[in-house]
Amino acid sequence: MTNENTTVLVTGATGHLGGHSVARLLGEGYRVRVTIRHPDQEREVVARVRRAGAEPDGRLHFLIAELTSDGNWDRAAAGVRYVWHHASPFPFTPPRDDDEVIVPARDGALRVLAAARAAGVERVVMTSSYAAVGYTVKPDSRYDESDWTDPAGDIPAYIRSKTVAERAAWDYVHDHGGPELAVVNPTGIFGPLLGDRLSASTGLVKAFLDGSMPVVPRMYFGVVDVRDVVDLHLRAMTGPGAAGRRFIGVGGPAISFFEMGQILARHLPAFAARVPATELTDEQVREAARTEPTLREAAALRGQIPVISNERARRVLGWRPRDVATTIADTADSLLRLGIVRP
């Protein structure tokens, strides 16, 4: 059975993950319907898709729909077999009120699921985050899909929003009997950019290469390649064992900011003098976090080195991610290729 008569709805296609997702689905022969917030974003998505080496060929269509409004979600889901729900608000600065992030994330997920159920969609693959898994510290620092972040903890709004939204999605399909739901929980998503819009992760690599972040907190985190996250979504969309399950996406053992800098220095020796050379101590991080909200996350994790399992994705779906060093190097190369970072 070919994919040419199967339509996949993708939300959040203007993001780092979304552009790669649309390109991969087109490359696999699917018809793709994309929700955007305003018409100008259509050209942006098409440009990203072409940069990834795919062509729309009349199989890419757009519809305006907002996470914060019921309008058009019925049309978006009509005739669709699968949904990839990537869209979720991500604040680059802490919001005045956490609900500015939490409410649209939760209600947007519920709108997508309700529209999918009404339209008879077979399966929804929701992009949650490792933020919903491992931001409540455990004594053994080992995390798998059975773990949940406590949204009542002292954590940033974005982390809370991912936890609340995913919990709401699971509750919805349990209470309403469908649609089938699979959830992907990626760690920090790196990998080659398709445009000049930076995500938090790719912006970090830029900061390392342009010398604007000479000192870093002692913080360890998981890394995964954007192309492998797309592959995980594709496997979760059609895998017979995927429905009703979460899948952590991580490419290998957690690394620190300092170790990331060393990977970049080895890959691009001309930039070695710019990468971070000093780590803040845990006490310095805690002190700085009192006045610098962006360090709240590092302070909350207290320097733990998490052991993050991707065993379920490997075993159930046959997923095989790239190694972390390759992902970081490919991210850097794309920043140079696009002229975002210069020698």
Automatic annotation (TrEMBL):
Gene3D superfamilies for this protein: NAD(P)-binding Rossmann-like Domain (3.40.50.720)
Pfam family, one: Epimerase
Keywords: Oxidoreductase
Identification of the protein by name: Dihydroflavonol-4-reductase
Family, as annotated: Belongs to the NAD(P)-dependent epimerase/dehydratase family. Dihydroflavonol-4-reductase subfamily.
Oxidoreductase keyword on record: yes
Source organism phylogeny: Bacteria, Bacillati, Actinomycetota, Actinomycetes, Micromonosporales
Source organism of this protein record: Paractinoplanes deccanensis
Residue ranges annotated for the NAD-dependent epimerase/dehydratase domain, each copy included: 8-240
